[in-house]
Each structure stands twice: as structure tokens, then as C-alpha cells.
Design a protein that fits this description.
The chain is mainly alpha-helical. The protein is built from 4 helices and 2 strands. Helices cover about 45% and strands about 10% of the residues.
Length: about 100
């Protein structure tokens, strides 16, 4: 039995045949609605940056929603104590930040 996770379609800009997601959980994402029907060679550099930023935001939102930081098994790797402390801090900041708080650069 074949999966229908991917479907063939045509790029909205150049008409090249592309594979795209048929899954509603992907199709309902803002980045997918905007860029999902466009092949990678047709995306401008600015659009590539926008897409990458949107994917990072969507991943962070999903990780908070599904509480990914709390599911990390910190004992699965042997890390020096300082490295583990830094990784825990980074995971906590990235995965638990509220979507409305401003990002520092």
C-alpha cells in the first residue's frame, strides 16, 4: 500500500513538476500556504530567508505545544557538567519561550 503523504503537482511559477505534502497538518501552516506550491529554484533569496525563519518559528511553537523540552532524556548522553548546563539552558529558552516575547539579537 502506497502512502499519500506526498502528491505530484506543478510549481506555480515555472510549471515544473514537484512533490508536495498532502497532509493537512503541513498544508495548514502559514509557510506552507505561502511557499508550498513553489519549487526551490523559483524562490528568491529573500523568500528563502522568510521560509527558514517561518519554519524555525513553527518548530518552536510546536515544541512548546507538545512540551518537547520536558521529554528530552538528559541521561542518554554523557556530557561534561558545564556542557549539560548550557544545553539545558538553551533548550529551556528555545522551547519554552512565549511566542509574544521579543527576541534578543
Amino acid at each position: 500500500m502506497r502512502s499519500k503523504a506526498l502528491v505530484k503537482t506543478r510549481c506555480r511559477r515555472c510549471g515544473r513538476e514537484i512533490l508536495t505534502a498532502a497532509n493537512a497538518s503541513f498544508a495548514n501552516r502559514p509557510s506552507y500556504r505561502r511557499f508550498g506550491g513553489i519549487c526551490s529554484s523559483c524562490l528568491t533569496d529573500e523568500e528563502q530567508r522568510e521560509l527558514s525563519s517561518a519554519q524555525v518559528r513553527e518548530t518552536a511553537l510546536a515544541s512548546r505545544r507538545f512540551r518537547i523540552a520536558g521529554k528530552i532524556d538528559w541521561r542518554s548522553e554523557k556530557l561534561p557538567e558545564e556542557e549539560e548546563e548550557v544545553l539545558r539552558f538553551m533548550a529551556q529558552r528555545f522551547f519554552t519561550r512565549s511566542s509574544s516575547s521579543p527576541r534578543r539579537r
